[in-house]
Amino acid sequence: MYKTATNFGEYLKQKREEKQISLRELARRLEVSAPFLSDVENNRRTPLTEERLATLADVLNLSEAEKAEMYDIVGHQKGLLAPDLNPYVNDRPYVNAALRTARNLEADEDDWKMFIEELVKRKSGDN
């Protein structure tokens, strides 16, 4: 079993090896060169573009949880929001307001878990 990846290069290599796809084959399917992809895996280049990340998720048949982990690693490594969340946040200014409110009130993990549980309950109709 693999340890949790600390950066995108490690994550990419772990997932590629788990799925038993060669570096050359993955590079071909992502439409990049093998040396470029090797540099990404070895953290000599920054993580892939959003478009290539989406293709990577498809090629590696990542679960929703694995995709979320991948996007979180990329966002953290770049010091930004996870790339899959950018369109959602950018199109909804109230999300930024909610995040700032949570920050200002020092919302902790329990607060966020309660918020998520309540939102899921409301959206699934289990009032």
Brief overview, please?
With 127 residues, the protein is mostly helical. It has helices spanning 8-18, 23-30, 34-41, 50-59, 64-78, 86-90, 93-104, 109-124.
Characterization of this structure:
The protein has 127 residues and is an all-alpha fold. It folds into 2 domains: 8-80, lambda repressor-like DNA-binding domains (434 Repressor (Amino-terminal Domain), Orthogonal Bundle), CATH 1.10.260; 92-124, no CATH class. The protein has 8 helices and no strands. α2 packs across α3.
The CATH homology group name of the largest domain: lambda repressor-like DNA-binding domains
List unreliable stretches of 5+ residues. none
Oligomer: single chain
State the secondary-structure class: mainly alpha
Helix content: 55-70%
- Label the overall shape: elongated
Q: Using the CA coordinates, give the radius of gyration.
A: 17 Å
**Overall CATH class of the largest domain:** Mainly Alpha
Distance between the termini: 40 Å
